Amino acid sequence: MSLKNKLTFAAALLAALLSIVGIRSAVKKHRIKKEEKAWLALGPIQNHPKRIYDVKFAREFNDMNEVQLRMAQAIGVPPVADREAAEKLKNKLVRLEDTDTYVVDSLTHSIPYLIPEAKALLDLIGKNFQDSLSAKGLNPNKLVITSVLRTEADVERLRRRNLNASENSTHRYGTTFDLSYWRYVKIPELRGRPYEDVPPEYLRATLSQVLKDIHDQGNLCYIKYERKQNCFHITVRK
Predict the structure, then answer these.
(1) CA-CA distance, 10 to 87, in Å (whole number)?
(2) Which is more confident, 1 or 117?
(3) How confident is the model over 176-194, as pLDDT tens digits?
(4) Using one digit for the tens of pLDDT, what is the confidence trace for 90-101?
(5) Kindly report the CA angle at 123 between 120 and 129, in degrees rounded to 5?
(6) Contact at 8 Å (CB) between 62 and 224?
(7) Is 125 exposed, middle or buried (0-12, 13-18, 19+ CB in 10 A)?
(8) Could you give phi then psi for residue 153, rounded to 5 degrees?
(9) Is 179 helix (H, G, I), strand (E, B) or coil?
(10) Alpha helices in the chain (DSSP H)
(11) Less packed terminus of the chain by CB within 10 Å, N or C?
C-alpha cells in the first residue's frame, strides 16, 4: 500500500472513530437528560420522620456557669480587649466560617473565634447533627451559631444593654459557643428537587439528642440550656 493510500485509510479510520465517540457521547447525554427529567418529576423530597423525641433540657443541660467558667479560664485564651487584640491571637484561635453543617449568625456582641478544641467540638456536633437527621428520615438543615468569643468591649456594650448579662462570661475565653435551638438554615434542594421543610420542633429534638449523646460521654463539654436566649450554651472540656 502506497503512502498516500495509508494516509487516506488512517484518515478514514480516525473519522470513523470520532463518529463512534460522538454517537456514544450523544447517547450518554440523552440518557443523563432522561434520568434528570425522571428525577425532577419525583417532586419535592419529603421527610420520613422516625424516632423523634425531645430530651428534658433543664434536667440534662444544667451545667452551671461557675463550672464552665473554671474550665474556660483553665484552657482558654486570656480575655481580649477588642477585635484588634483578638486578631493578634491567631496562633491560639481559629476563625469560624460557614460550613456544610453550620452557619455563623450576624454576630453583634461577639466575634467568630474559638480555641482549636472548641472548634473541633463544634465540627463534631455539626457532623453528628447531619448524620442524625439522615438517620431519622429528616431533610438536611444547618445549625446556627449565635455567639462566640466576646471581647471586653463586647461585654461592656452587652451589659449596657442588659444589666443581667454576666461580666465574667465564659465567652471571653474562646472556649464557648451558643447554638440556637429554634433557628436553622434549610438546605434548599438536591439536584433541582426542593427539600420539604422540617418542622422546627423536629430539628430541636434532633439537636438535643445529639448534644445529650456527646454530653453523656462526660469529658467533652459542658452544656447549659438558656431558655431566654433560645440557645444551648456550650463550653469545651479538656
Answers:
(1) 66
(2) 117
(3) 999 999 999 999 998 889 9
(4) 789 999 999 999
(5) 140
(6) yes
(7) buried
(8) -65, -40
(9) strand
(10) 3-41, 57-60, 65-75, 83-87, 116-135, 152-161, 200-215
(11) N
Listing DSSP states for 207-228 in one string gives HHHHHHHHHTTSSSEEEEEETT
Pairing, β 176-186 against β 231-236: antiparallel
Positive or negative CA dihedral for 37, 38, 39, 44? positive
Decide if 130 contacts 101 (C-beta within 8 A).
Answer: yes
For 34, residues 6+ apart whose C-beta sits below 8 A from its C-beta are none
Dist. CA 5–CA 1, nearest whole Å: 6
User: In angstroms, what CA-CA distances link 226 with 65, 92, 155?
Assistant: 11, 28, 18
Which one is the CATH code of 57-236: 3.40.50, 3.30.70, 3.30.1380, 3.30.310?
Answer: 3.30.1380
